[in-house]
């Protein structure tokens, strides 16, 4: 059980560690994946193009609204809730609005795991989608939090660059990292594998898309 000092620390500044946020990503990814499997099963079992289209549209709508609706109403997706986390609006210190929740999802889906790189350098451990929407991910219930699951705010430096400059530098860093990883992947790919890889490329792209989809859905 956390001591009184630990509880007070949690209440003062309790930002979720990357490991907790990753746990939330995995849980939400599993939920979305199960929904996808259920939707495909219904579409195949119906043997009807009309039903298949309806099921497909319903699934896409559910995926797009899953996080924004839950985060704006309750402060947490299911993954966040089970990981004892909630999304907090910097301005109101309450739940983020629906439009802001949609923006968070869009940025996170676009950048994928790269969005979380800035957690290592921001004072409140914010990912890119947190920074751009002025939100943070904090402990939901301090009484259930353990010290290893959260982290306090980093000390501010005496001279700080403007928020706009920090965002621009952060985005440039992410773009540079993305390009570097892409170039490294191309450089390491041997010519002997090109023909064989091209034959199975559709399968690889499908697996990668599903994996990326799961990671971006929390």
Largest sheet: 2 strands, antiparallel
Helix amount:
55-70%
- Helix count equals 8
Could you tell me the strand content as a percent range? Answer: 5-15%
Q: So what's the oligomer here?
A: single chain
Q: Name the structural class.
A: mainly alpha
Distance between the termini: 29 Å
What's the count of strands?
4
Uncertain residue ranges:
1-9, 205-218
**What is the element string, with H for helices and E for strands?**
HEHHHEHHEEHH
Strand order of the largest sheet: 1-4
Question: What descriptors fit this protein?
Answer:
disordered C terminus; two-stranded antiparallel sheet; mainly alpha; 6% strand; disordered N terminus; 4 strands; 218 residues
Topology:
Layout: H1 4-12, E1 15-16, H2 18-46, H3 49-74, H4 78-82, E2 85-89, H5 98-111, H6 128-133, E3 135-139, E4 150-151, H7 163-188, H8 194-215
Antiparallel strand pairs: 1-4, 2-3
Helix pairs in contact: 2-3, 2-8, 3-5
The gist of it:
This protein is mainly α and 218 residues long.
Provide structural commentary.
- The chain is mainly alpha-helical.
- It has one domain.
- Helices cover 63% and strands 6% of the residues.
- The protein contains 8 helices and 4 strands, in the order αβαααβααββαα.
- Strands 1-4 form a two-stranded antiparallel ribbon. Strands 2-3 form a two-stranded antiparallel sheet.
- The N terminus and C terminus are likely disordered.
């Amino acid at each position: 059980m956390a001591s009184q000092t630990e509880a007070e620390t949690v209440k003062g500044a309790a930002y979720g560690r990357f490991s907790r946020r990753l746990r939330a990503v995995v849980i939400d990814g599993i939920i979305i994946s199960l929904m996808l499997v259920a939707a495909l099963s219904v579409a195949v079992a119906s043997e009807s193009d009309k039903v298949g289209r309806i099921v497909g549209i319903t699934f896409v709508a559910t995926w797009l609204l899953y996080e924004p609706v839950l985060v704006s109403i309750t402060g947490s997706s299911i993954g966040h809730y089970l990981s004892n986390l909630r999304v907090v609006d910097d301005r109101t210190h309450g739940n983020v609005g629906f439009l802001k929740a949609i923006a968070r999802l869009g940025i996170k889906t676009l950048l994928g795991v790269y969005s979380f790189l800035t957690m290592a350098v921001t004072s409140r451990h914010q990912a890119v989608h947190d920074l751009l929407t002025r939100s943070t991910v904090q402990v939901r219930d301090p009484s259930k939090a353990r010290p290893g699951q959260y982290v306090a705010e980093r000390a501010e430096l005496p001279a700080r660059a403007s928020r706009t400059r920090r965002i621009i530098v952060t985005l440039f860093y992410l773009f540079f990292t993305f390009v570097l990883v892409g170039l490294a992947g191309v450089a390491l790919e041997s010519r002997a594998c090109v023909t064989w890889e091209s034959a199975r490329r559709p399968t690889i792209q499908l697996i990668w898309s599903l994996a990326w989809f799961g990671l971006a859905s929390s």
